[in-house]
Design goal:
The complex is a heterodimer. Chain A folds into two domains: 230 residues, no CATH class; 116 residues, abc type-2 transporter like fold, CATH 3.40.1710. Chain A is built from 17 helices and four strands. By secondary structure, chain A is mainly alpha-helical. Chain B is an alpha/beta fold. Classes of the chains: A mainly alpha, B alpha/beta.
């Protein structure tokens, strides 16, 4: 049997006979990627469902309309509670936030729409451990209050316009020209209100989309953007790329520690006593580590595709090329660690720290577009960034093969660099 | 003749030919003037040795004497600072791979993959020497049978005793049928029964015409196995020869120890013993007498007569043969296991 193949086969058998390593390398990334994938949007487009408490102290038609509109919002799970109970549930973490509509909310908010009148104060209490909830609730509250109050004011179901016109007409301090313009505006609104039949019941149940009522002055047409003919974003795709990269690098560290252990146990000496070139000894180690990395990544992606709906929307050859380049990168990274390491114990800690830095800066935990601009540019010198970007491009972004070329070239460049450094620093004699 | 220089083939199965005459004058392995230093520390200062086919050369010395470094240089693991190693006249630098194929190394550490079965370990090491797949299977079973582990072929070394692991370690070095076997402390941590089994294996290899270099700091092992012994200390050869030649370096080949009673004048008695027939050395310490002599039967009588004449009684008398420990002690002033 060829010595090179015998050494590769030996490494594969040893690695896959170690159940702990296999479990850590395959099951752990799948579980963690599933978790991160679900956090970052997963495969379905169901919106976040924020449990929110509401206390309506006003009980006016307008406050009831606001509560009804928020109940109808799919982003919220609304529960009407007394104020103290709502506060207690936020403290306990059962509710993410609670709002209290104060007495007089209906009339005060209608008059405050034109300024000058005192504004009602809505109490908003939120869980400090969920900071993302605050802007979400604040935004949804603004949307529903604005829609409801504006519709109420301009639909004529409450005499706000008439009251305002009377105040302006009686205001002797206002310049005559200015007074005239405002009175004309109020008269025009009154004409519009009189031109449609008044139907308070319909107004109360209307959520703002019927003809003749007020609503948000725009809608959005939201489209997922990627290059495939039928792009299908899957939040798990990025999570699996990131976690796969992380745990395969951990596997590379394990292989490096294994080599250091071989040295300690005298096995490396024994191998060197055989008629083998340095190229065979180190090359077989690179080949076996790369093969293990490819097998593990294949299994991880098989699970991602079978269970989590991840798809290679772009070039399949490009996807394979990125995986292969990353597998080689992992192997040379492991070899470099083995070359620089002295003892297995000391090396393991440093190697894991270096790996965590690489995956963090590579965007494995959170997408790199969240990074500050300077860090987005700086992290381009991190090879894992290219691995994850390459995998993202070939999976959910649906990019063609050409998009894989640069990541592959960069990763192969790093592979060559790491391998050269490893050979240079490798201590051949014990 | 099995294993002789000039025979370039490595015909398999040669290990198990029965007793053959082996030409002892034909050096299979020759090391000359080996020297190795690590920074300011000199591990091997000047070591030369040679071993013929069918011969066991014992490399004896205390821990740190430079034995393993010497083996490392002979096997091509460590580049010597000076000196040369040849196997049948061929040097390592001329054809490293061919050189290494003629050597089987049994390292001091157990060089076994614990998660591979015994036979998988042997097949792996055989594959490193490019044995054809079909031959490899046959050879692996042959060497396992030789070391008495054929029935444990499918078991992993993790389940083996220390002695079994040592035997498997030797089997891994034999699978490619080397001409020269380098054994670096191969019985470290082994029980007496396993040690005897290993010695039986090595004696079979010697009969099969292999050239063996056996490093140890146990003088009993060297005395039992070695045809010739090289004693090293602080990286230098302090003595070399057959065991008989080495014993001749001692002033006396045998010893007599007597626990006496009634010694009054130790100095006078010691002088008298020195003058007695056949006595080479005499030392009186309190009521204990130690005497070095060449012929126990002749000298014992004259010693007992001398003691009786002086009114000295003997409570206990022991005799012994000088050993390599005595040789080492005489040459270096230290015990082998210091």
């Amino acid at each position: 049997m060829n010595a090179f193949l015998a050494l590769v086969r030996k490494d594969l058998v040893l690695y896959f006979s170690n159940r702990r390593s296999v479990i850590v390398s395959i099951v752990a990334p799948i579980l963690i990627a599933a978790f991160f994938g679900s956090l970052f949007g997963g495969g379905d487009s169901a919106p976040a469902n924020v449990p929110l408490g509401v206390t309506d102290l006003d009980q006016s038609p307008l406050s009831k309309q606001v509560v009804a509109a928020m109940k109808a919002d799919p982003s919220l799970t609304l529960t009407e509670l007394p104020g103290a109970e709502a506060g207690a549930q936020v403290k306990a973490g059962t509710l993410r936030a609670s709002i209290t509509l104060p007495k007089g909310f209906g009339s005060q908010s209608s008059h405050a729409l034109f300024g000058g009148s005192p504004k009602p104060q809505i109490d908003l209490r939120y869980d400090p451990s969920q900071p993302m909830v605050l802007p979400l609730v604040r935004g949804l509250l603004a949307e529903h209050v604005m829609q409801t109050v504006a519709r109420s004011v301009f639909s004529g179901s409450v005499p706000v316009i008439a009251d305002a016109r009377a105040q302006v007409a009686a205001d002797a301090t206002m310049p005559a020209g200015r007074r005239r313009e405002l009175l004309d505006m109020f008269d025009d609104i009154a004409k519009v209100q009189q031109s449609r039949p008044s139907d308070p019941a319909a107004s109360a149940s209307d959520v703002g989309n019927g003809p003749g009522t007020l609503s948000m002055p725009f809608t959005t047409n939201e489209t997922q953007m990627s290059s495939g003919p039928e792009p299908h974003y899957n939040g798990y795709a990025h999570a699996f790329a990131g976690m796969g990269v992380q745990f395969i690098l951990f596997m590379g560290v394990d292989m490096a520690i294994g080599l250091l252990m071989m040295r300690r146990l005298g096995l490396w000496t024994r191998l060197r006593a055989a008629p083998l070139s340095r190229g065979t000894l180190l090359g077989s180690r690179i080949a076996s580590t790369a093969a293990i990395a490819l097998i593990i990544f294949a299994v991880i992606y098989a699970a991602a595709m079978a269970v989590f709906g991840v798809r290679v929307e772009g070039s399949v050859p490009g996807f394979v090329a990125v995986l292969a380049a990353f597998a080689l990168l992992t192997a040379s990274f492991g070899l470099l660690i083995a070359a620089l390491g002295r003892t297995p114990e000391a090396t393991r800690g440093l190697a894991i720290f270096a790996t965590l830095l690489l995956v963090m800066l590579g965007g494995a935990w959170v997408p790199s577009f969240i990074f500050p601009t300077w860090l987005q540019k700086a992290s381009l010198v991190v090879p894992t960034r290219w691995a994850i970007d390459g995998l993202d491009a070939m999976t959910w972004r649906g990019q063609p093969f050409e998009a894989a070329v640069m990541p592959v070239v960069v990763m192969l460049g790093f592979t060559a660099l790491f391998a050269m450094l490893a050979v240079w620093r490798f201590n051949w004699e014990e | 003749m099995a294993g002789a220089c000039g025979k370039t083939d490595t015909a398999l199965g040669r290990l198990f030919v029965d007793d053959r005459e082996v030409a002892m004058d034909q050096r299979m392995l020759e090391a000359r003037g080996l020297r190795k230093a690590y920074g300011a520390r000199t591990a091997v200062a000047d070591v030369s040795l040679g071993v013929a086919a069918g011969e066991v050369l014992g490399l004896l010395g205390p821990n740190g004497a430079g034995k393993s470094t010497t083996v490392g240089m002979i096997s091509g693991l460590t580049a010597p600072d000076a000196g040369s190693v040849t196997i049948c006249g061929a040097t390592l630098s001329a054809d490293e791979f061919r050189f290494k194929r003629r050597i089987g190394l049994v390292p001091q550490d157990l060089a076994l993959f614990e998660d591979l079965t015994a036979i998988a370990n042997i097949e792996l090491f055989g594959a490193l020497y490019d044995l054809p797949r079909r031959t490899l299977k046959t050879r692996a079973m042959e060497v396992l049978e030789m070391v008495g582990l054929a029935d444990r072929a499918r078991d992993k070394p993790a389940t083996f005793s220390g002695g079994m692991k040592r035997r498997l370690n030797i089997a891994c070095a034999l699978v490619h049928d080397p001409d020269v076997l380098l054994l670096d402390e191969p019985t470290a941590g082994v029980d007496p029964q396993s040690r005897n089994a290993i010695f039986d294996n090595l004696e079979a290899l010697k009969r099969a015409g292999k050239a063996l270099v056996y490093t140890t700091h146990y003088m009993e092992e060297a005395e039992r196995l070695a045809d010739r012994i090289v004693i090293v200390d602080h990286g230098r050869v302090v003595a070399a020869g057959t065991p008989t030649e080495l014993y001749r370096l001692l002033p006396a080949a045998q010893t007599l120890q007597i626990d006496a009673e009634g010694i009054v004048d130790a100095g006078s008695l010691q002088s008298a013993l020195h003058a007695a027939d056949g006595v080479k050395l005499a030392k009186v310490d309190g009521q204990r007498i130690e005497i070095g002599l060449d012929d126990l039967a002749l000298t014992t009588a004259s010693v007992t007569q001398l003691l009786a004449a002086r009114g000295i009684g003997m409570r206990r008398i022991d005799s012994g043969r000088a050993n390599l420990e005595d040789v080492f002690l005489m040459l270096t002033g230290r015990q082998l296991r210091d």
